[in-house]
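Example record

The entry below shows one chain as it appears in the dataset: sequence first, then structure tokens.
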Amino acid sequence: MFPAGFLGVENQLWIWLIAMVRPGAAMLAAPIFAARATPIQLRLILGLAIGMAAMNSVVFEMPEGGIASFNGFALVIGEVLAGLAMGFALQIGYAAAFVAGEAIANAMGLGFASMVDPQSGQSTQVVGQFLSIIATFILLVMDGHLLLINYVVQSYQALPPGGPMLSNDAIYGLVMFGGALLGAGVTVALPVAFALIMIQLVMGMLARSAPSLNLFAVGMPMALITGLILLAMTAPIMGQGIGDALRQGLDQAQTIAEGR
């Protein structure tokens, strides 16, 4: 039994816990927030702060039977899906940099060179890592992390806790947007990758005309040097393409937040 002054404490704690679910799920899938370098304590504090502010804008009542009931379980599932969908939409736009990096690195002959990605903790190619750093800077410059938090707060109006879940159209739109990831990555890598493919064709013609030529001694340094020069020349264009992919991810997250 709680004392008379603490009768509402348990209910308030449950409300705070529910308030953390949607922002926490969004941070679990979104870039920067989901990085291993981001402390879990920071995610919990941000999730609670964002959730408390958002819950004050809607009328919420605990389901009958509490969280352990069927209605409570459905409530938590709906909150998790809404948060993951918004965070994952931005992550798809962010992943275009990795797709472009993979294409460029393979054309440059750097497919064997890899390093640890701080976002996922997995091994990724160096060019993809370079473009992911550029994508992180662009996302911070365009206030993408703040826009995502804003969309999470706005989503409580169209998708209140305990209300309707994500519609089939919203899920279908997210799936179709995921299919556009490959196209966005190829668009970013096109200026460099196309030039490197042309160099590979020239090296192939030289190999046919001079069979004694050691392509490993000539072709690989040529592709590597040309790739580095092209990366420096086309960095503004690739940065613009990565920014466009991030904006598309934010637009998709806004569409989900509006319940469309």
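Notes for this example: Residues 8-257 form one domain. Residues 177 and 242 are 15 Å apart (CA to CA).
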